[in-house]
Design brief:
Strand content: 25-35%
Low-confidence stretches: 1-39
Radius of gyration: 26 Å
Number of strands: 25
Number of helices: 8
Mean pLDDT: 89
Structural class: alpha+beta
């Protein structure tokens, strides 16, 4: 099923972007017709902030493994400095993260544009017949007590899973609200006919505000509500102030979870079908980066009422979600990617990790799936700072005794790491706008590269320089500038604001035109240049330029980059065909899995269900 357009609507390694928001009217925006319904779709949606954090952390891990960097302690965390940024490799010892979970159900108020059925409220999922359905999880009452047990219970729970998975290094403590009612029916927040930015983000906004309004109705003052919420803000996930101290407040809820009434679309959606919300992890209103947010951390998001506390990162799970989906989505919240094949195929991660099919495990003979997940693999634990490993140099012989992957740290290591020779990686970025060649500003840390030429504006009364541009530039940190010099290049003046984010304003870059007004320099010989500057630590694809043109008094020249550099002088820019070849670090990881703890489910699956 392809999403329709509504006219008139405003790693499994074994070894960044402005998004379309919701118009002021609150009407959802039509979906991109290229976005097909995703039978095996990714549930970890694009988040430039976290993508940058993850890239920084991967780089720090690689440097520690190859010996080129050494971690240091800052406020209890193990961190590595990369350029002028910090990567956190290990959290505070015995860290217990606060989680704020709000249970939300849907009103009978049908959105006038989206339509759909009324509701649902909670506890309307029909009890499945095990003879024909042994996969749907069901309880007679999905009340607040049920979720308290799932999150915090002494038996299998989110807190228990992460405590055991981390070897006692990490756990959670979740405060669960009672059910609150949202302004609209679920279709308004889950319909596949509209873009996810205009359905999912309002769901998070309305959930947070419904909770806030319920507190006000219960007699709480705004000051009391704000003080209450501060218990969930003790972690500066993105090191917003750049001091390397991650264990401080930043004005955002550290871990926000919205649990919706009804089934998740990933399990069929129940009575709501494709109007149900698909469980996912994302960042609300990331298009507000640099413009909205708490003082000192303008990272977008949505404010909870008028509390001064914001929600950015969040996860969403359904009413009848098992522990597997809750633990899986929380894994995303900690920075882990999906390790299953989101293109609809299969891969070898399968049931071996929570971040793939392992989230759908359950106890033997259970009439459901996803209620008792299996553990993660070694790469995931290493990424989170929980893996006790030993390194064996490539080509060396060494006998290593491993402990069970499911046991806490020591006395034996849980995994062995074998660094390998560098690997040749071919990266295909794009196709030039026309022909076979384009200019590229590069994809690296610490760039300050230019592409310049002389521009003759004598005799001109109006002038502009344009280029087709395809770019993915780290928002808020890296920029592409257009600049003019009237003194032969000794001094340069910027034209307009620096360019960052994703060309086209979506999540995937598209070719778009950039235009620079040179009319103020009419009558002169000047120099014009593009300048691309990046900071340290995180870099994205960068800027690509093609089909450049100058128009003066209605006429001018064009350059399709096919005939070489021409009049351009490149200092760091590269004329290329849309793909690159590079050498990358990689390594093997080996562990010893046993039928222990949550991995005991590997004995039985479920590997088949109806």
């Amino acid at each position: 099923m392809r999403k329709r357009i509504i006219g008139g609507l405003g790693a499994a390694a074994l070894v960044a972007a402005s998004l379309t928001g919701v118009p002021a009217s609150g009407a959802p925006q039509p979906a991109n017709p290229a976005e097909n319904t995703r039978a095996t779709r990714a549930d970890n949606l694009p988040n430039p902030l976290d993508e940058g954090r993850t890239a920084l952390k991967k780089e720090a891990l690689a440097r520690v493994i190859n010996g080129s960097a050494k971690p240091e302690q800052r406020s209890g965390s193990e961190v590595v400095r990369i350029g002028n940024r910090w990567a956190e490799l290990k959290r505070k010892a015995d860290k217990v993260d606060p989680v704020f979970a709000v249970l939300s159900e849907f009103s009978n108020n049908i959105h006038p544009v989206v339509g759909g059925d009324p509701g649902p409220l909670h506890n309307l999922i029909p009890q499945p017949n095990p003879a024909t359905d042994n996969s749907t999880y069901w309880e007679p009452d999905f009340n607040q007590a049920h979720f308290n047990k799932m999150y915090n219970g002494p038996g299998e729970s989110l807190a228990d899973f992460y405590f055991k998975q981390s070897g006692g290094k990490y756990s959670t403590n979740t405060v669960v609200s009672d059910w609150v009612v949202l302004p609209f029916n679920e279709a308004r927040y889950g319909s596949n006919d509209f873009s996810e930015t205009s359905t999912y983000w309002p769901f998070v906004r309305d959930t947070a505000n419904a909770w806030y309004n319920a507190q006000v109705a219960a007699g709480k003052t705004p000051a009391q509500i704000a003080d209450y919420l501060k218990q969930f803000d003790v972690y500066d996930r993105y090191d917003a102030d750049g001091d390397g101290n991650f264990n401080e407040a930043d004005g955002y809820i550290d871990h926000f979870q919205a649990v919706h009434a009804g089934e998740g679309e990933e399990a069929g959606g129940g009575a709501q079908g494709e109007d149900a919300i698909w469980s996912h992890r994302w960042y609300a209103y990331s298009n507000g980066f640099g413009q909205s947010g708490p003082p000192g951390a303008l990272l977008g998001g949505t404010q909870i009422g008028t509390s001064g506390i914001w929600v950015g990162d969040y996860t969403v799970q359904p009413e009848n979600g098992g522990l597997g989906v809750f633990a899986h989505e929380f894994g995303h919240d900690l920075g882990l990617p999906d390790l299953y094949d989101t293109a609809g195929g299969d891969n070898s991660s399968a049931f071996w990790t929570l971040m793939s099919g392992g989230s759908w495990m359950s106890k033997a003979n259970a009439n459901n799936i996803g209620t008792s997940p299996s553990y993660m693999g070694p790469w995931e634990k290493m990424f989170l700072g929980w893996l006790d490993y030993t390194v064996v140099d490539n080509g060396k012989n060494k006998i290593v005794s491993l402990g069970s992957a499911a046991t806490p740290e020591g006395p034996l290591p849980q995994a062995v790491v074998v660094p390998l020779p560098t690997q040749t990686i071919v990266t295909e970025y794009n196709t030039p706008h026309s022909g076979n060649f384009e200019w590229w500003g590069g994809s690296a840390d610490g760039l300050n590269v230019t592409l310049a030429r002389d521009v003759d504006l004598t005799g001109a009364t109006t002038a502009k320089l344009t280029t087709q541009a395809w770019y993915e530039i780290e928002a808020g940190y890296d920029y592409l500038y257009g600049e003019v010099s009237t003194d032969g290049g000794a001094n340069w003046t910027g034209i307009g604001a620096g360019i960052d984010g994703v060309s086209g304003g979506g999540t995937t870059p598209v070719w778009t035109e950039l235009s620079y007004d040179l009319t103020p320099y009419a009558g002169q010989n000047v120099k014009f240049r593009f300048r691309y500057q990046t900071d340290g630590g995180v870099h994205l694809a960068g800027p690509f330029l093609d089909d450049l043109a100058l128009v003066t008094n209605g006429t001018g020249w064009t350059d399709d980059v096919e005939a070489g550099a021409g009049a351009w002088t490149a200092s760091g820019f590269t004329r290329m065909s849309g793909k690159t070849t590079r050498q990358a670090e990689h390594f093997y990881l080996a562990e010893f899995r046993t039928f222990t703890g949550y991995d005991n489910n590997l004995k039985t699956g479920p590997y088949q269900f109806i």
